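Shift notes (night). Ran diphosphoinositol-polyphosphate diphosphatase while the centrifuge was going.
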Amino acid sequence: MKIEKLLMGRFIEEVILEDEEEFVGVVDKKIVSKEEVVVERQNEVRKEEEEDKDMFVPPLNFSMVDNGVFRSGFPGVSNFTFLETLGLRSIIYLCPEPYPAANSEFLKSNGIRLFQFPIEGNKECCANIPEDTIREALKIVLVIVIQRPSKHAYGVEFLISIVCNADVRNHPLLIHCKRGKHRTGCLVGCLRKSQRWCLSSVFDEYRRFAAAKARITDQRFMEKFDATNLNHLSFPLSCSKR
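Came back to this:
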């Protein structure tokens, strides 16, 4: 009895020898045993996995926020090769669940620091977003600006702002939650307010990632978020090299 099956894009003919009641297969016109068919299948899968390692696959909802700052959904193993190209120094993780072992090992092997700010994922429309947590996370993204008095040539005192370069030690960094929509969207939206974006532009960016899952509560949170007390912080220039 002969049965043809499609395996990895090739037809494999399964043959049962009635006299021996033994399963064999025909792969590329070559008769092989059942064990050899299994090995052939495993080799094909392994080959595909090796090819995936050489591909640069960004995480879900990946995007550049600004120089040295990126956002995305939860990165998987297939995204590690791509993330290596970013030269990350830090990751801001906005979920309460422990970081997976594979991801932790990736961070360790690449010298990347993990900052976890747990925000519960909630599908309810009345979910509260912890403002204090958002502010603490923003301190990792932003850098401190020190203002000190200086004198003009004519003796008039004024304030000059000095960006502390040491505070960009966290950059480049990646902000992510699970899907890169709500928690990440709120943090980026509050960052935009500190950059003095108009509210309509903040909402447009949020909805671009949240799409049909956009929440009124998230947008209300960003609207009410007071960024004036972040005036001593500033968004840094790109820090693309370690």
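The longest helix spans residues 34-53. The chain has two domains: 21-54, 63-146+166-224.
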